Automatic annotation (TrEMBL), chain A:
This is Excitatory amino acid transporter. It comes from Sphagnum jensenii.
UniProtKB/TrEMBL annotation, chain B:
The chain crosses the membrane at residues 6-25, 68-90, 96-119, 150-169, 181-205, 225-245, 266-292, 298-317, 324-345, 351-372, 392-411, 417-447, 473-495. The lineage of its organism: Eukaryota, Viridiplantae, Streptophyta, Embryophyta, Bryophyta. NCBIfam families: NDH_I_N. Signal peptide: none annotated. This is NADH:quinone oxidoreductase/Mrp antiporter transmembrane domain-containing protein.
Length: 84, 505
């Protein structure tokens, strides 16, 4: 998981830097340190996204359970809404 | 309670302070004889960008102060799941407002990035435009979190006041002045109608708070007049008309074309991006959360169908890029309204995904338009030489146009697919059918861009100057998002699901 996120993020960062140079008609490998920086940022972004997805999934599951229990409480016995 | 009230809206307060400081900085320094009256647009743009990015930090209970300094994206990774009602229920902070605000701030940052080079190219020393952008960003933040009709109206008015000024940025250009005046006169009418609607609702129900209104409209609380009186219906209708005008749906779209065309390109960019997020967020809160009533649904069905049809048909006859993009924007609002008018959780989710993708595609297109602007790029035919002189930019624009046209597997296809899927799910078969037909029609003018770029021989050869680094990076990020969205859409589905759920009572 971490490896994939790092690899994909780094590849994306590198592609963005290549694109940025290419669209400005500059040599693709101009200022190589920018490529390294872009790869690093891309890898960090990829990992942050992967972590964030897990976090979001957990929160969503929790929220769905809350909604479900609130709905059950609201409609027990009668169709009229019950004040909490 | 007191701590919450002033800490939670810290971004808005920070933005107001930053704007005031920027304004003083500009006024004092730009009139300084000692520094030879320096043009400050670029400095102010960077400072504005800094204030917007730093704005991402929210302060919540049990949080470390270092969060002030993290950028928006990293902040989003630890989104707060707290619900806070602020200033006696006038504002609310929850997942929905939080993510909408982050997205809005990202878009404002993108707009400021796009304009870093713009003023120099246009020889325009209008540093006040950055201050105005920051001011209406603040208004839109308040608008997203508004939880009361009065707070909502005040936020909309704050936003509109800035919008009236900014199209007339080029004071010596008659189209720009015309655009500003036109928007001012028509916008004033729409604000009046909106306010009248709010006063009718208050007159017949006696409350202005969204939560109270929601309880009344779902039948939880009964009022003297009941929730179905014609006065209330008229109030909702007036509020809807005010909103529909602001978001440029048919039949209230007339102002958009001239304002889009007459305004400076930078302003057009901001007009077609930021208000869509704030107004749609506010509309969702007002109509789906508060006025939970099927009476307004037919109105939005009609607006959706009319916008889709007009957006597809009228754009075909356009030769000017900005007018075409204005019609495209109207058409896309029609598609977004499919999700909105369904009124379900899935509908809101599809609407939010649609807005995210639409905004990113629009940033991409306008970054290209602004990059080519320095060559007096005005008509679509001016793109004739692009494929020969800059093939990478041509591929980028082609991919974005394919995405606008909804061609798989690009992001535009995913958003439209989900919107139509929701329409079928809630039984709005006609909406889905008309949506598919209008997409087929709109392919004609989106693919015309590609045809002109690759197959037409240009009448005059234009040598395009290379764009600046900031725009190229923005272009790269949006292009990769559009192209690879289908491979990894799950975070967006999860966020939008959470946002939609936070609107549940």
């Amino acid at each position: 998981m971490v490896g994939t996120a790092t690899f994909v993020g780094a590849a994306l960062g590198l592609s963005i830097q290549f694109f940025s140079n290419g669209v400005r008609k500059l040599p693709l490998m101009r200022h190589p340190w920018e490529h390294v920086l872009a790869m690093g940022l891309g890898a960090a972004f990829g990992n942050a996204m992967a972590k964030w997805e897990v976090h979001l999934q957990d929160e969503l599951d929790k929220r769905l359970q809350e909604v479900q229990s609130a709905n059950k409480k609201r409609f027990i016995g009668t169709m009229r809404a019950v004040e909490d | 309670m007191f701590e919450h009230d002033f800490l939670a809206p810290f971004p808005e307060i920070f933005l107001i302070n930053a704007t005031i400081i920027l304004l003083i900085y500009e006024v004092v320094l730009s009139t300084s004889k000692k520094y030879d009256y320096p043009p400050l647009v670029r400095n102010v743009s960077w400072l504005g960008l800094l204030s917007v990015v730093r704005l991402g930090g929210r302060v919540w209970e049990n949080e470390e102060p270092y969060r002030y300094l993290i950028t928006i994206l990293l902040l989003a990774a630890n989104a707060p799941l707290t619900v806070a009602n602020l200033f006696y229920n006038n504002l609310i902070i929850n997942n929905f407002t939080y993510f909408c605000q982050i997205f809005l701030l990202l878009n404002t940052a993108s707009t400021i990035v796009m304009c870093l080079d713009y003023f120099k190219e246009e020889s325009l020393n209008a540093f006040e435009s950055i201050v105005l952008i920051l001011l209406f960003t603040r208004s839109m933040l308040l608008m997203i979190s508004a939880y009361d009709l009065i707070a909502m109206y005040l936020a909309i008015e704050l936003q509109s006041l800035c919008f009236y000024v900014i199209p007339a940025l080029k004071r010596d250009f008659e189209f720009s002045t015309e655009a500003g005046l036109k928007y001012f006169i028509l916008g004033a009418f729409s604000s009046g109608i909106l306010l009248f609607g709010c006063s009718m609702i208050y007159g017949f129900i006696g409350v202005t708070n969204f939560e109270e209104l929601a309880k009344i409209f779902i039948g939880y609380k009964i009022t003297l007049f009941g929730a179905q009186s014609s006065g209330i219906f008229m109030g909702i209708l007036f509020i809807a008309v005010g909103f529909l005008f602001k978001i440029t749906t048919v039949p209230f779209h007339m102002w958009a074309l001239d304002v889009y065309e007459g305004s400076p390109t930078l302003v057009t960019t901001f007009f077609s991006i930021a208000p869509k997020i704030s107004i749609l967020a506010n509309m969702v809160r007002v109509f789906i959360y508060s006025f939970y009533d099927p009476t307004w649904q037919q109105l939005f069905f009609f607006c959706s169908i009319a916008s889709m049809i007009l957006g597809a048909l009228a754009a075909m006859a356009q030769n000017k890029v900005k007018r075409l993009l204005a019609y495209s924007s109207i058409g896309h609002v029609g598609y977004l309204f499919i999700g909105f008018s369904c009124g379900t959780i899935e509908g809101i989710q599809s609407l939010l995904i649609g807005v995210f993708i639409y905004v990113l595609m629009t940033i991409n297109v306008f970054a290209i338009v602004l990059a080519l602007r320095q060559n007096c790029f005005k008509y679509i035919a001016d793109l004739g030489a692009l494929a020969k002189t800059n093939p990478i930019l041509t591929i980028t624009l082609s991919i974005t146009m394919f995405s606008y046209a909804g061609i798989p597997p690009l992001a535009g296809f995913c958003s439209k697919f989900y919107l139509f899927f929701v329409a079928l799910g809630c039984g709005a078969y006609l909406l889905a059918l008309i949506g598919v037909v209008t997409i087929f029609i709109s392919c004609f003018y989106y693919i015309r861009f590609v045809k002109i770029m690759y197959f037409d021989t240009p009448k005059t050869w234009i040598l395009y100057k290379p764009m600046d680094r900031e725009k190229s990076l923005l272009l790269a990020i949006t292009l990769f998002f559009i192209t690879f969205f289908f491979l990894y859409p799950s975070p967006f589905f999860l966020i939008t699901h959470q946002m939609a759920l936070s609107l549940c009572l």
